[in-house]
Structure formats: C-alpha cells, structure tokens
Amino acid sequence: MMEAVRRGAAILRGGGSALDAVVASVVALEDDPLFNAGYGSVLTTEGSVEMDAGVMAAWPAQGRRGAFETGAGAVAAVRRVKNPVVLARAIMEHTGHVLMAGAGAEQFARKLGIPLCRNADLISERALRRWRSGMARGALESRAERPHGTVGAAAIDARGRMAAAVSTGGVTGKMPGRVGDCAVIGAGVFAERLGAACATGDGEAIITTALCRQAVGALEGASAQRAAGRAIARLIAARRAEAGIILVDRAGQIGYAHNAQSMQVGIFDSAGRFRHVWAAPIAPPARRR
Ligand code: ASP
Questions:
Q1: Is 172 in contact with 147 (CB distance < 8 Å)?
Q2: CA 284, 3, 181, 252 torsion: positive or negative?
Q3: Which of 8, 121, 129, 168 has the most CB atoms around it within 10 Å of its CB?
Q4: For ligand 1, which residues put their CB under 6 angstroms from it?
Q5: Out of 70, 150, 172, 200, which one is annotated catalytic?
Q6: Whole-model pTM?
Q7: pLDDT-wise least confident of 107-111, 130-134, 175-179, 226-230
Q8: Helix (H, G, I), strand (E, B), or coil: what is residue 196?
C-alpha cells in the first residue's frame, strides 16, 4: 500500500494532477494480488471476476472565483479489463457518459487501446483457494465470509484540484451481474468543491446512504476528520452496516473513519511525510446480516 502511496506522491511532487496521482495509486493496488481489485479480485458464485471502479475530480473553474467544475467516470461488472480504474477515467475524459457496464465498456476499452485480458488472468491463486473453500462450506451464499481489500485514493494537488478513485472485485459470493458502490458516483466515490472521498465496505448500504456524497457535504463547517466520522456514524445508525471512508478537503486536511475489523490508510502530506496508519474503528464491526 505504501508503494502505491509513493507512486501518487511522486506525481504530486512533480507538479502532476490529483487525478493522475489517485489513478496511479489505484493501478498499483489493482496490480497487486493482495488486494481485492484488478488481479486478485474476489470471485462471483460462478467463479469469475467482475470488477467495479469509479473516479471523480473537482477543479477550480477558470475565471470564476470560488467555482469548481467536476467530472466523473465509472465502470461496472467488467470482466476483461486489467485496470478498471483506467477505463473509468477514460469514460470520464472521452465520452459524454458517466457509467458504462460489461461488454460495452470492454469494447470501448479496446477501441482506446486500454489493455484487455482473459478473465482467468485476473484470478489469483489465493482468490481461487478462498472461493473453493467458501463454496465447499456453503459459506458464500450466506455472505458469511466477506473479504476486504477494496482499494481507493483521494488527493489534492498544488493547484487545488481534487480527485478520488476507487476499485474493487466486490464481495465474495455475489451473483454475477451484482454491482456495488464503487461504480456509483456519490456512493463509493465523490468529489466537488469541498473535497474528495472514497469508501469501502457494505456496498448496498453505501449506495442507499450515498455515503461519499454525504461525507463531502459534511465538510461544510466541519473538519475532514469529523466529516468522515459523522458519515460512518450516520451509516451505522441508518443501516447497521460496515464501511470505511477516506477523504481530503480543499485545505488539504485528511480524514478517515471506519467500523470494520481493520482498515489501513497510507498518507502523504504537504509537509512531505509518509505515514502508515492502522485506523482504529469508531464502533465495533457491524454484525453480518
Ligand atoms: N464496497 C465493495 C462492494 O460492495 C466491497 C468492499 O469494499 O469490501 O462492492
């Protein structure tokens, strides 16, 4: 994870954009089989990989003091794209759409020269082993064994541009075709003039509470840390679900909160420091439904 943070930091230090930085960090995590995104994603009940990813950016509007422009892109249930976050960004930058799914999204990736692969190339040995043992115990259908490892990044650059990106294989034992929060702008990822955020956890609850939209909105009059905590507390109250969130505000303040068993955060700040945090949960993990 810290290697992924370093890649993003190198871009920011070189004067690059927050969007470039978050995408570079997420690509590094997608390529690493330790994480539930890209190669190493968890498997559906049918034993295949289906991935979701999203990006959103907010940047100061030229010539309009205090105004921000935004852009967003997302992919859902893609099966053959090596780095879904790259395709999500391409949808934001090269189409008039926000969310593309499945085969159509993959066709668009091919047109742009974004690398495709076989679904089998995305399946790590570890994911297969876990899937087999889950299936053997009937654990997948009961959703008793949700692994974590969804990845995301949020950043602000020297020009005040903010961005967040998120990517996941979803939840183990999901039905083919199930789409989670990472593909839903406002739920798993969001950015606007106040800040940028991305989330992990119970996708269905994150969608129905529009978690990242709520958290960024809460930055009006609250610190980044307080906004993150409030968003998770609200999700617990509304859904008794489990989630984590990271966010950055337009002053470069960082916030994170979760109520999962564990969540790790890698931080690069404007003083040039790198930090690795095992974030303490703000409440005990929610009981599985
Ligand atoms: N939020 C992801 C999903 O529901 C899973 C996770 O973050 O663990 O697809």
A1: yes
A2: positive
A3: 168
A4: 148, 150, 168, 170-171, 180-182, 200-201, 203
A5: 150
A6: 0.96
A7: 130-134
A8: strand
